[in-house]
Design a protein that fits this description.
The protein is 51% helix and 0% strand. It is mainly α and 102 residues long.
């Protein structure tokens, strides 16, 4: 769907790893890049582009989705890691909203 939207805007979407975007912008291989705001600012795309235009800032949400049977099959220590890392991501995202994006 996202590539259809971009094509409808007259672009030629190219997919690449996040790690390759900075160099592609720097060398002119890409004219623009689209990603979440924290992704673009976190990897300093502003150092190789004239403009960064972002969406209205909101608390970032990411989902890890799995069915209950699969989740229940994961060892308890790994379930604890998933919960701990999810909570860490939530705290970090909230901190960024209140500090960096404010």
């Amino acid at each position: 769907m996202l590539s259809d939207i971009r094509e409808g805007m007259g672009t030629d979407p190219q997919f690449m790893t996040l790690a390759d975007v900075y160099t592609a912008l720097e060398r002119g291989v890409l004219d623009a890049a689209m990603s979440c705001g924290t992704c673009g600012s976190g990897v300093r795309w502003d150092g190789v582009t004239d403009y960064i235009v972002g969406s209205i800032v909101a608390i970032e949400v990411n989902w890890i989705t799995m069915n209950k049977d699969f989740y229940d099959s994961i060892p308890a220590d790994l379930q604890a890691i998933l919960k701990e890392e999810g909570e860490r991501h939530q705290r970090t995202s909230r901190d960024w909203v209140e500090t960096i994006w404010a």
